[in-house]
Every structure is written in structure tokens, then in C-alpha cells.
Amino acid sequence: MAEVTSAHEDPISSRSRIIAAAARLTCADGWSKVTMGRLAAEAGVSRQTVYNAVGSREDLAEAMVLTESAQFIFTIVEGFEKHPDDLLSAIHEAVENTLVLAEGNELLRAVVSATHGADTELLPLLTTHSESLLGTLMVVVQDRVDRYEIDLEPERITAIIDILVRTSLSHVMQPTAPPRETADSLTWFVARILGRTEELAAFRA
What we know:
By secondary structure, the protein is mainly alpha-helical. Helices cover about 75% and strands about 0% of the residues.
């Protein structure tokens, strides 16, 4: 792919294109094969633009992690926002859509794997941000769940959220069923604890 001149490069669009190109190269060939020269060619920008837009390789890895994490979090939030009055439907959609997003997304799986301490090529650069990803997901889900009326002590709700988030992340790394089936199972788990299994009929329709 031919390089474009820096005079015609928009900094914001170039940065997004570079990060996306880095993710593609990492998934295809591994992080060790990602050089600034290959990245410039893949993104269709000048090599200087790569340095100007993302800085060092460590900065680039951080940008990829944050970008993937943002997609992950947005998908979860979107699921809850679509069902502001139905907690079980919100959980089901958030879980299913998250697992669908993760299918075939090797970089996202690497981020989540690092969250669980797995050895990945990017682990040294992922560890700090993957740990914060887990914490962020807990806060995001807690904030959404707190908007629903639930007849349980706050500490019990927090425990349910912890199990739900960690189990969902485990299925991102190593799925054992299609996304919808996993969403069905986790929603059943929450419904059972809340004593609201009669509401599950909606998911069988």
C-alpha cells in the first residue's frame, strides 16, 4: 500500500487507522512481527506519521488495548441501555453481544486472557491495562445494575456481578457453547438467585 504524504494526513483519522492496522497485523502475524515500517504500509500513512500518532511500540500496544477495551465496555453498556426496565433481558443482551464481539477477535481474547493471568505474547504490555479492564467492567456493570430494583442486600448483588463478569470473561477466552446458549445459562443463573425464573419464558419464545 502506498504511503501518503504527511501534508494530507489528518491526525485523528490517521491514529485510528494506524491502531486498526496494528490490531490486524498482531492478529495475523503476532506482535513481534509488527514493525513501524509494516504498520505504515498497512495503514497507508508515512512512517513519520506512525511515530507522531502513536509514539513508541509500547504506546501503540497500550492504544490497542484501550481501543479493544472500549469496544468491550460499549457493547455491555449498550445491552443494558436497550432494556432499562428489564434486568434479565439487559443481562442476556449484554452477555450475548459481548461474546459475539469476541468471536474471532484474537486481540480482545489476548486482553481478556491477560486479565486471567494467561501467558500471551503481549502479556508484559497488557497486564496493567487488563487488570484495570476487569475493575472497569465491575464498576460499569454495577452502575447499570444499581438502576434496577432488586430485593437483595448490596453485598449480595456485588457478589452476583462478580461471578457474572468473571464467568463471561472466561467464556470470551474459552467458549464452551454458542453466545446465545451461554447468555441463556448466565441469565438463568441470575434469575434463579433473584427468584424470577418465571420471567425466563420470554427467552424461549
